[in-house]
Structures are given as structure tokens and as C-alpha cells.
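Reviewer 2 asked us to include a model.

Predict the structure of this chain.
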Amino acid sequence: MATLNEGGALRVGNKRFMISLPFEGAFGDPQLFANPFLTGLLSKLLSKSYILGSLTAVASLPGSADQSIHRDNPRLFPDTPELELPSFSIALIVPLVALNAETGATRVFKGSHRSEKEGLPHQDPIVPLGSCYLMDCRLRHQGLANRSDSIRPILSLVYQRAWYRD
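Predicted model (C-alpha cells):
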């Protein structure tokens, strides 16, 4: 269970913390959160009236363990888990260091945004510095252990349909 520590960061796992960021300096640059390529893509995936719901950094400290497999958002209709629904929340993940087997990638379970089946195949994307990826917030995933000697920070910008609140 997440608890707020004295430093203002939310604990989101073993040696993992999420920090809300201000829309100032580099974090307030529209090229980060409203890049034209990104906004065009999000308009098609979420509708033209999407909003930026949150801007956070998630820091995985050296020696952090694998996270438990989870979704960032609950199902909208838990009684009908196989219901075909469009995306309602998508995270843009911007690594501030390369994500690999040493620093810890984010394992994703293919098709888990549309299925409750266990044993779905997984993938551990290697993400070089300067790259980013989008992740449907219904996708089951797992931050892997940070085996490096350095903090592994990522930026997470969560875009959502205007009616949705996390």
C-alpha cells in the first residue's frame, strides 16, 4: 500500500517513489507535454478533448526489487472485464536514463489492457535515452529491479479523457 513519506514523495514500491512535478522550467515546456506529434496522436487515441491529468517523476533507487504486477487504473466496468472499450487514460513515459536489464525496464503484459487472462506473454522494452513510449493505463505491467548503482528516474505524463479522474 502506498504511503506518503516525510519528504513529500509517494512510496509506490520497494525503494520506489513518485513525486508530483511543477509546470515550471523544463517541465513547463510545451515541447515536453504538448508536442504537436504527441497531441495529434493523443487526439486520435483519446478524443480532441483530452486533458493532462498528472505530471510526475518515478524514481527507482539502486537495489529496488521488482514491483508487483499491476494496473495504474481500475477497470471502468469490473463486472464485464472483457468488454471492448477505447482507451481512457494513456501515460507518456520519458526515461531520464536508459531503461535496460541493469537499470530496470517496465515489463508489459501484451493484451492485458483488453483481457483478464493470466499467463499473457510479456515484453521488457529496452528504451534508450532520448526515447519515450506510450502505455495504455489499463495495461498490466511491472517495474523491474534497478540493479545499477544509480537512481533510475522516469517522467510520467498521464493524459486522459476529460471526464475521467484518477
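The first strand starts at residue 10 and ends at 13. The chain has a mean pLDDT of 91. We have added this to the supplementary material.
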